[in-house]
Amino acid sequence: MLVETTNNFARHVxxxxxxxxxxxMLQDATRSQRSQVAAHARLRTLxxxxxxxxxxxxxxxxxxxxxxxxxxxxxxxxxxxxxxxxVGANETFGEAPALLDRPTPFDAAALSxxxxxxxxxxxxxxxxxxxxxxAQKLIAHLAEDYLSLLSELQAxxxxxxxQRLASYLVSLAGPQRAANGCQVRLPASKTTVAARLGxxxxxxxxxxxxxSERGCIRVEGRVITILDRTRLSGLAA
Amino acid sequence: MLVETTNNFARHVxxxxxxxxxxxMLQDATRSQRSQVAAHARLRTLxxxxxxxxxxxxxxxxxxxxxxxxxxxxxxxxxxxxxxxxVGANETFGEAPALLDRPTPFDAAALSxxxxxxxxxxxxxxxxxxxxxxAQKLIAHLAEDYLSLLSELQAxxxxxxxQRLASYLVSLAGPQRAANGCQVRLPASKTTVAARLGxxxxxxxxxxxxxSERGCIRVEGRVITILDRTRLSGLAA
DNA sequence: CGGAATGTTGATTATATTCAACTGTTGTGG
DNA sequence: CCACAACAGTTGAATATAATCAACATTCCG
Lengths: 237, 237
Description:
The structure is a homodimer of 237-residue chains. Chain A has helices at 9-21, 31-40, 95-100, 121-130, 132-157, 161-173, 190-197, 201-213, 229-236, and strands at residues 42-46, 51-53, 62-67, 69-76, 80-88, 92-93, 107-110, 114-119, 183-185, 217-220, 223-226. Chain A starts with 8 loop residues before the first helix and ends with a helix. Chain A is of the alpha+beta class. The structure holds a DNA duplex (30 and 30 nucleotides).
């Protein structure tokens, strides 16, 4: 749980500066430009289960995760939702709606106690006006975002849930860990991961059992051991 | 059909210049900057049914439709596909992969004889280096693209096909035409529209029949008459 | 410990796909 | 102009897939 000590202003300033300093998007900006941006940014703490922003609300700015883990999700009728992605430390979200000053296009909820840096659009836009290098970086960033959303859609276009689960597990394992027997930890509860894969928790449970019975994986709570990566990749097709 | 007369170079140059001149993305560039870009662009004619680019191939540049209609689609196993969107005259696509010099992330096929202007990344990047205003416009453009892809995903997250069809019809009707009785023309064959909605053509056929029987719409080939827009919007929920 | 949240499992049901047959439309070459 | 092939669309029946419902098991925490 968050230990909310005396509201230590200096500490907050330090965190904001540190986070902004490390933003990939601003890596080509000068130190003083980053300080400028940091000066306008503010800190926001989130208790597990609370939301940073909700679909349709005004978007306060570009959001950077200082620590913790959030999920971005599209709400669906009946209190369900479709999880778009998880956002962890040092990652950003909301660039597109923030820059265009549009309503938030998704819900963002904290899966664990988290801290966000909120960067209002104004200082960023000012930076862009005069510093093409920063603008180029932002363009690359937005383009990356677009492509990952697209590959999200591609995953969703795959026929059945098992294929999506298989490729998700492979992607969690990462490209480097080629060997079998590597372990993967689900970033969230199975219910939430199910929403990420676009299925119900019951279906995820059955899919995991199916893959276990076929000897592809072993499931121990949130930890999945990949026993046969080749076959798993084959299923992902 | 395309009348490919004597390969009229001057005419091609004129078309390229005209198209580049009208690109929303470059509206804040100077006339001479646009000419610069146009000088590096080339024209590509596409017969109905042929593809401008395919998933995984190198992306030749940003693509602008001079005339005609294309579909962007993600291929699926068994020769099927999921249509992402239709791209018509004066619209652009492929900015993200082109700017990042990544492989094409979708298939682009001509639904009718079409002409494309291909803008290589180099002159665009050069423009960005020195002209922040152009960069800002491009940022806005990419952000828009991101948001529309997101709303695409949102539509897909809706429970059933009828809801997606209903909202698709409403969006085709446009926000202005509030009255009932307005007519909408499907931009492509029902089979292709079905792929756009993420269902099989048989399912689309049944859904259309269902809406007809309920008195929401009338179907005459590709022309749909919206009889009860209120109820239709209600279904879209 | 006790209660809430999370996960599992089986039975049933909803939704859309697949398969197959048939109809209609369109464009092509004899 | 007609015959015909290729494509597009419709319809019904059988099937696949995952959702829903309901009951129970497990884990996590205070």
